[in-house]
Design a protein that fits this description.
three-stranded antiparallel sheet, single chain, alpha+beta, 2 helices, 91 residues, 6 strands
Length: 91
Amino acid sequence: MTLLELSDILNVDIVIRRYANQNGRYMAIFDKAEVKENEGSVGLLGEFGNGKTAIGAMNNYASRISGKWLVIGALSDNRREFGVPASMENV
């Protein structure tokens, strides 16, 4: 499964940012998403991907969240949690 496929399944946008003042570095993250290590974890991490291109940042993000749990809208009434497959493929 790719990050784009996971985005479609979860109905969550992928946010891509380009930082012009950092040699054109790109950052990728699911909108309003945080990560926890496993289903029973309580601590949330602000995980994101970096890359020299938007695709590179998306691939880096996919590898960083593989096998972990996504928490969408952690502090909202619509909080959702999903297990990410352990073997995410490149975009």
